[in-house]
Write a structure and sequence with these properties.
alpha/beta, Nucleotidyltransferase, domain 5, 4-stranded mixed β-sheet, Transposase_DDE, ISL3 family transposase, Transpos_ISL3
């Protein structure tokens, strides 16, 4: 029975528990009341009032058979001065915010909020059935430690996060995925391909188009120093953007600059032409058209005079099946790259994490919305 609060204490609700037979948790025999204490517990929060308290008598019971003495909490999860529902509510309010802000807003010790969060937060994780997944690596400490994450391409939720980025780590992360996976999107690293083939041999392996184009844009950046006089009149970032972008989205003046730069260096012209040709191949819509265009592209550039182009083509020939699936598939790793940006924000917002397991838990809770 819950009574209305008094005018002097509008946030305190007296609670009267009904009579009941309390059994011993050890031997399940009858117990008797050994002592009782009137106590208050945080049970909720209201914006116009603040913290809501309940006041009830907490009995101390003793078993008639084994003399075991214990405190009975009526199933409210009473710990110190809070109930389980209040602790779970505080944990839900931590989503998208720092623990320090939540502790400051509700006038709680930071260590208490931190303990509650990592105690109840795993309850919010939900298992998903995924048919299309993205897998990629991210830096815990750039240049030192890395981790691998697997994401549901349909919902955007991170399904698993494991430390390291070698083949064993990738296989471990993929093994956590539940459901019949039909497609896996990743970059072009050999460890990714081997892990996908091992865990999901029947799934198609889709390569991220951004990483494919990046081979050519990186080669153009390396050739930038050979652009002669153009380098003196334009910033290097402007040159890189013009050479990497699709000509259709550039202005007439920028396309004129590109034509001038291509006449100054032969290798830059070859790399740029190969890049525009692979973009033309990406526009294919049917399987015969994809095979024909990709075959023509590889025959033209496989033994090209420009070493940078021929090297990229040889790498694509080794992944011919994955390349054909990539051109036909509408999937990309864009959602995964956006999630990696969220991970960076989570890491920056927490000023780093001393416990990787807590960091991975936070990633799974914060991403996908």
């Amino acid at each position: 029975m819950i009574s209305m609060p008094s005018d002097e204490e509008p946030a305190v609700f007296p609670v009267q528990a009904p009579p009941q037979c309390i059994l011993c948790p050890v031997c399940c025999r009858k117990t008797y009341r050994h002592d009782k204490t009137l106590r208050r517990f945080r049970h909720g929060y209201a914006w116009h009032i603040g913290t809501l308290w309940i006041e009830l008598e907490v009995p101390r019971q003793r078993c008639t058979q084994c003399d075991y003495t214990f405190t009975f909490d009526y199933g409210l999860g009473l710990v110190r001065s809070s109930t389980a529902s209040y602790r779970r509510e505080i944990v839900r309010r931590c989503k998208g915010r720092t623990l320090a802000d939540v502790a400051r807003e509700y006038d709680l010790p930071y260590t208490t909020v931190e303990r509650w969060f990592y105690w109840y937060a795993p309850e919010q994780l939900q298992d998903e059935i995924a048919t299309r997944v993205c897998v990629d690596e991210f830096a815990i400490r750039k240049g030192h430690t890395y981790a691998t994450s697997v994401l549901n391409a349909d919902t955007g939720h991170v399904l698993a996060v494991v430390p390291h980025r070698d083949q064993d780590a990738i296989e471990t992360a993929l093994s956590f995925v539940k459901g019949k996976v039909k497609a896996v999107v990743s970059d072009l690293t050999p460890a990714m391909a081997k892990a996908v083939q091992t865990i999901f041999p029947d799934a198609i392996h889709v390569l991220d188009r951004f990483h494919i184009v990046q081979f050519f844009t990186d080669a153009l950046k390396r050739r930038r120093r050979y652009l002669g006089e153009a380098k003196k009149h334009h910033k290097s970032r402007f040159i890189d953007r013009c050479l990497a972008c699709n000509p259709a989205i550039l202005t007439e003046e920028e396309r004129g600059f590109i034509a001038q730069w291509l006449t100054e260096d032969e290798h830059t012209r070859h790399i740029y032409q190969a890049l525009q040709h692979i973009r033309y191949v990406f526009k294919s819509t049917t399987a015969p058209q994809v095979e024909r265009r990709f075959s023509d592209w590889t025959k033209r550039y496989q033994f090209h005079i420009c070493g940078a182009v021929s090297k990229v083509v040889k790498g694509f020939i080794l992944r011919e099946k994955a390349m054909l699936d990539t051109i036909l598939s509408p999937l990309s790793n864009g959602i995964m790259e956006g999630t990696n940006n969220k991970i960076k924000l989570i890491k920056r917002r927490g000023f780093g994490y001393r416990n990787d397991a807590h960091f991975f838990l936070r990633i799974r809770l914060e991403t996908g919305d």
